[in-house]
Fold this sequence. Notes:
By secondary structure, this protein is an alpha/beta fold. 41% of the residues lie in helices and 19% in strands.
Amino acid sequence: MLILGILGSASKNSGARAGLEGVAERVRAAGAQFRLIDLATEFREPHDLADYDDPDPGGQTAAVRERVAEADGIVLATPVYHGSYSGLLKNFLDQLLGTAFAGKPVGILANGGGPRSAGTACDQMRTVVRAISGWATPSHIATTGSDYTDGRPSEFIGSRMDALVADLLSFANARQAAARPGKE
């Protein structure tokens, strides 16, 4: 089982990064693999619309699509900028086909200046997940800086992370079981 975390923050000390690290710990503790795409260092080039229909096999768009295809589940993590998710994350998502998340569970995490701004960004990402044929987990995580102490989540945010990871792994396991040969 492979969960792919996609970090849409350019900051090395962001709440979105701290949140995604907390989710990663929980995924690994549950016995699944977790891989990170840090958009501050990977896939930074602006999406070239000319690559959308027929991407260069060695180019960024093909690599983005391949990494997503390998995953059994996804976690999108972003800071909130002007009431929405980051441009880094938007650029990444724009390179995907409309079926990129087909049937995959997708967890959502946003860190904003206030809880309402992070919740709004989560709602926006939920819409994008549906547009890319994914299944947004019922649990999402909307945080602010005060939800972390020394980079560690509060007890409440930790319980939200536990719920999100449980949703992700439960749905991914059910999806894998349904895809096994011999299932009716």
